[in-house]
Amino acid sequence: MGGGTTAERPLAGVLAIADPDRAGLYGPTSEAWRLNREATLLLGAGPRAVLLQVAHPLVAEGVAAHSSFVADPWARLEGTLRSYQRIVYGTAPVAHAEIRRLNAMHERVAGPVLDAEAARRFGPAFAARDPSLALWVHATLIDSTLVVIDRWLGPLARDIRARFYAETLVVGRLFDIPDVLLPADIDAFDAYVAGMLAPSGPVHPTNTSRELAAAVLHPPLAPLAERGPVALWLGPAAAPVARLLGAVPDAVIAPLFVPAIGLLPAGVRTELGLAWGPTERATDAWLVTSWRAWRSILPPSIRWFPQARAAFARTAPR
Predict the structure, then answer these.
(1) Number of domains composing the chain
(2) Res. 7: pLDDT tops 90
């Protein structure tokens, strides 16, 4: 991508990567590759990011009006993860192509604001390509990664947080977020997130937000067996497995999302109507403690995302 604009070039100059295209937007020495590779962190960071996204009333409007989110929330979770992994661990052409695809898709996501509370606060229409909305979605992914690692793996040093955030600036610009909006450094980013969540900030859930949050935290299991790589792996067994999963009670599934609820800012958690009492705290402690114990035993070949393993192999010295 050597002939591109500053925003299009990978961070080759910063990271001293010999082959920028193969290394992608970040590369093997980046904090992005190091901090995003643990697959089990998705249990916290993935749902937390989506819950924060839909807590913004206008993001919730777009999700509700332009996707089958309530019927199949796995589709958005799967799509968000797939896009994130392509951008972080893909080659430069793959990452740029994914960002162009998302930008083009979001061009079509616009329309009237149907939630009365949201319309009163933000006006009668929304557009997903609004840079302020793009920045919030971008920020939820960054913040959720930092929060889950900080709480589950141990406190992150400020210089690591600063480097990780600096690496994300190139992606923010590729999503057409102008520099006048994009926080310049980690201190400005932390202030931006705090301002968005402040009592006078825009991120306060509506009824639409709460409906979408319920879909995230109580998803139907049957679609898992009927779509994507799981369906291919199951083959002819996909249909009977889907019927079995459809019979699994919500009480078995809901506790798995408790850690993500615990990672939410307390105000958002309360406004979404999510309980956080002794039962939830005990469930969270048990799940996180169990995860930490398994992490110390399992090798990277199991713990890391396949995309991360492939990226490190792709850029290893030959």
Answers:
(1) 1
(2) no
The confidence score (pLDDT) of residue 10 equals 39
6 within a domain of the structure (yes/no): no
Looking at the predicted structure, is the pLDDT value of residue 12 above 50?
no
Question: Is position 5 within any domain?
Answer: no
User: pLDDT tens digit string along 96-134?
Assistant: 999 999 999 999 899 999 999 999 999 999 999 999 999
**Residue 50 phi, psi dihedral angles, 5° rounding:** -65, -40
The phi, psi pair for 261, rounded to 5°, reads -65, -40
Tell me which residue of 36, 261, 56 sits closest to 140, measured CA to CA: 56
Give a yes or no: residue 199 inside a domain.
yes
Tokens standing for residue 82? 């797939």
Nearest to residue 217, comparing CAs of 164, 263, 175? Answer: 263
| DSSP secondary structure string for all residues of 236-275 | GGHHHHHHHHHTS-HHHHGGGGHHHHHHS-HHHHHHTT--
3-state SS class at 27:
coil
> Which residues are 111's β-sheet partners?
126
Give the domain extent around 210. 12-311
pLDDT attached to residue 252:
52
| Residue 2: inside a domain | no
User: In which residue are the tokens 């329309």 written?
Assistant: 111
